[in-house]
Design a protein that fits this description.
The complex is a heterotrimer.
Chain A (H helix, E strand, L loop, with lengths): L4 E7 L5 H9 L3 E5 L6 E8 L5 E6 L11 H10 L11 E7 L3 H12 L5 E6 L1 H6 L2 E3 L1 H8 L3 E3 L8 H9 L16 H12 L3 E3 L7 H9 L4 H20 L1 H21 L4 H18 L2 H17 L1 H14 L8 H7 L3 H7 L6 H10 L8 H12 L5 H29 L9 E3 L8 H35 L8 H7 L1 H13 L6 H9 L6 H13 L6 H7 L11 H13 L4 H11 L2 H29 L2
Parallel strand pairs in A: 1-4, 1-5, 5-6, 6-8
Antiparallel strand pairs in A: 2-3, 3-4, 7-9
Chain B lengths: L14 E7 L3 H9 L7 E7 L6 E5 L2 E5 L1 H4 L2 E3 L1
Antiparallel strand pairs in B: 1-2, 1-5, 2-3, 3-4
Chain C lengths: L2 H23 L9 H4 L5
The chains are: A alpha/beta, B alpha+beta, C mainly alpha.
């Protein structure tokens, strides 16, 4: 089918665009980026009533085509056919919200002036009905001369009618006289004329169901209780419940390794498969449950409309250090991974706010740090209780929050002030969560995560294994072999630099390796310590036995603390560097980010180790 | 201009009509696009738990503005 | 000890490095947005 039609899906944020997109395309969608910007490009395919395939481009939410944020810029450029990477759509599906029809027609009328065929979808008709608003869609259809479809996208009500509209062989151009005047008031007057007699409101009751929820959820005291319980619940699930599926994954990879060992003769290739591939990839895939849990929580909060209330409540705390309430979402997402966090900054209109949020995002304790923390805390407190370990973990999270605030404050003070920007936060009505949509989002994120584990992490693990194995020494002793290898030589080279921090050359290998991705530290430790001799010990036991030249344990409290502090701050993630570069469109900020975070991490770890010397050992 | 009341002074439940704005053009344009037109009726809904931002109802939508911005939007 | 493994392993490593280099260093395509854009995406 060469002449597949392409529809662009356009609407304000929070109109249910994604829901409609999912309803139209199901799982047949692809998420990528518009080159040069970190704006997500979602393209999917569906079939019309005649069985012909069509393409749907889900454009970023926009309030108007006079672009004010990168999101809106992309939407405008695609609709006008100004992006070389995306062909101009054949028609536009314009989504408007039944509750605020006038405001949503602001964008809709601008779209109607592009000269493309349009289908208008009025979403959330159920909610409008609850609020005593009825819309005469037929009358609007007659006036505009295009299909106007009332829908409840989340319940899939109206899909049939939309399918009929989509399947029409020739889609109509709207009958609409362009508003030449750039003043919004003129456009609103024109919209008023258009909508006259199509919207009926019973004004008496302004108390919406959302208000009842808001009385609790943004209550001065109860609101915080709810928010803290949700964040507490999230972290509880992340650290305790996730353990079961994680053990299962761990066990599976362990079993896989045993199978290979049972079936292959001993040799280099077998070592590469068991230590490099299975050990390295398994050490990363084990985070899948945590990634899924985090996106479940974020999806739930976003889907119900609660996330906007969180921004509403948090704005005051964020504005003190020059951050935007909208920065809460990116920062919270960064606790899973800084990359979706940085990508979430695209909803902010101010370039300066975006930059500050991007620069501090990597300080949040992303889930890749988790295994490093778990491993080091266990080494640090070999006989500690679960409570003590949890306390250290909480301490690290608190440290990262302090870091986020401090550096946001620093950047706010030092970065060139831009034109004072406005913070407008829309508080959409609450909605029943769509489990289908949340599941779909989790599936998407999980898929991307696994693909990364199967490509980048797999490649790096193999390279790391090679670096610890070659060049080969004649010695049969694993430790001597490691010292002789490329990785060992590298570790020895940087040893003088990291010695004041309390690290030896083997830790240096892990440190350098984890600049590609933090979690590689754990896989590196497996490769380094388990590769030495084929004993049955776990890596952790083997590391606990590791001693320095003077016979003291290498991983003592001081060194572990120093390492932990280093991992809290250091910028060790190539993907984040790449995303920062793309987001800010310059190497300058990406390099600054690496330098300031790693430099600070070095100093902080140095201080920890040196000051620790007065209290410990 | 300075002696007129502004949106930041409204109490919960109070309704007012939007007058002039003392904001940069991009900000004022965005606000107008979102319904803060001269003469439009605005209802102050509530303040955030920490006092800022302030939630307003404009044309059926709920929008939150910071105190500093709201103080630049005058009422008639 | 099987001998074939001592040359097979380095071969796998070399192929891996080649793929990694090729994926990251080939000139970025301007016109279309494919896997290339994905690798830095929200993992």
């Amino acid at each position: 089918m060469s002449s597949d039609r392409t529809f662009a899906l356009v609407g304000n944020p929070n109109t249910g665009k994604t829901t409609l997109f999912n309803a139209l395309t199901g799982l047949r969608q692809k998420v990528a980026n518009y080159p040069g910007v970190t704006v997500e490009k979602k393209v999917g395919t569906g079939r019309d009533r005649h069985g012909a395939a069509f393409t749907v481009i889900d454009l970023p939410g926009a309030y108007s085509l006079d672009a004010k944020s990168p999101d809106e810029e992309v939407t405008r450029a695609v609709l006008r056919g100004e992006r070389p990477d995306t062909p101009q759509p054949d028609a536009v599906i314009c989504l408007v919200d039944a509750v605020n029809l006038e405001r949503h027609f602001y964008l809709a009328t601008q779209v109607m002036e592009l000269g493309l065929p349009v289908i208008v979808v009025i979403n959330k008709t159920d909610e409008a009905e609850e609020r005593g608003i009825t819309i005469a869609a037929k009358r609007l259809e007659e006036r505009l001369g295009v299909s106007v479809v009332p829908m409840q996208a989340n319940e899939r009500v109206g899909m049939e009618a939309l399918q009929v509209a989509l399947s029409a062989s020739d889609l109509a151009q709207p009958q609409w006289t362009a508003v030449e005047d750039g003043d919004p008031a003129t456009r609103y007057t024109a919209i008023e004329t258009l909508l006259e007699g199509t919207v009926a409101r019973s004004e008496e009751d302004r108390q919406t169901p959302s208000d009842k929820w808001d009385r609790v959820l943004v209550h001065p005291i109860l609101g915080w209780v709810v928010l803290l319980s949700i964040v507490g619940g999230l972290f509880f699930t992340l650290f305790s419940l996730a353990g079961y599926p994680m053990d299962l994954i761990d066990g599976t990879f362990g079993w896989l390794g045993e199978q290979v060992e049972a079936r292959m003769a001993e040799g280099d290739l077998r070592a590469l498969i068991t230590e490099g591939i299975i050990g390295g990839v398994g050490g990363v895939v084990i985070f899948l449950p945590q990634i899924l849990i985090l996106f479940f929580f974020i999806g739930l909060m976003e889907n119900t409309g609660y996330l906007a209330r969180v921004s509403f409540m948090m704005d005051r705390l964020m504005s003190g250090v020059g951050l935007n309430g909208k920065a809460f979402v990116p920062v919270l997402s960064s606790y899973a991974c800084a990359i979706p966090g940085i990508m979430a900054t695209r909803t902010m209109e101010s370039a300066r706010d975006r930059l500050i949020t991007t620069l501090i995002a990597p300080i949040t304790s992303c889930s890749a740090r988790l295994p490093v923390y778990v491993m080091l805390i266990a080494l640090m407190l070999p006989v500690g209780t679960a409570g003590q370990k949890a306390l250290v973990m909480i301490g690290l999270y608190v440290l990262s929050i302090i870091g986020v605030y401090t550096f946001a404050w620093v950047f706010n003070r030092t970065l060139e002030k831009s034109e004072k920007t406005l913070m407008v936060l829309e508080l959409p009505s609450y909605q029943r969560p769509s489990w289908r949509e949340i599941t779909l989002q989790m599936y998407e994120r999980g898929k991307i995560f696994l693909r990364r584990a199967g490509t980048v992490i797999l490649g790096l693990s193999i390279v790391l294994w090679a670096m610890t194995t070659y060049p080969k020494s004649d010695s049969e002793d694993g430790s001597e072999q490691l010292a002789y290898s490329a990785a060992g030589r590298l570790g020895k080279t940087i040893e003088p630099v990291i010695e004041p921090l309390g690290y030896d050359w083997k830790m240096g290998i892990g440190l350098v390796a984890s600049f590609a991705a933090r979690e590689v530290f754990v896989s590196t430790m497996s490769i380094i310590y388990l590769g030495e001799e084929a004993e049955e010990d776990s890596v952790r036991d083997r590391m606990a036995e590791e001693t320095r030249a003077d016979g003291k344990p290498a991983y003592d409290v001081r060194t572990c603390l120093s390492l932990l502090v280093f991992y809290v701050f250091a910028m060790q993630c190539l993907s984040t560097v790449a995303v920062t570069r793309r987001e800010t469109n310059s190497w300058r900020w990406a390099i600054l980010q690496v330098v300031y975070l790693t430099g600070f991490a070095y100093l902080a770890a140095l201080a920890t180790y040196q000051i620790g010397g007065f209290f410990l050992s | 201009m300075t002696d007129s009341r502004h949106l930041g002074q409204l109490t919960a439940g109070e309704v007012a009509a939007v007058g002039g704005m003392d904001l940069p053009e991009t900000a004022a344009g965005r606000l107008r696009e979102m319904g803060f037109l001269t003469g439009a009726s605005v209802r102050m809904v509530r303040r955030a738990p920490l006092g800022c931002p302030i939630e307003f109802e404009v044309g059926g939508a709920r929008l939150a503005l910071r105190q500093a911005d709201a103080a630049q939007i005058f009422v008639q | 000890m099987s001998d074939w493994q001592s040359w097979a392993a380095p071969a796998v490593v070399i192929v891996t490095v080649a793929i990694l280099l090729w994926r990251n260093l080939r000139p970025a395509k301007e016109a279309s947005c494919d896997e290339e854009c994905d690798c830095g995406k929200k993992e």
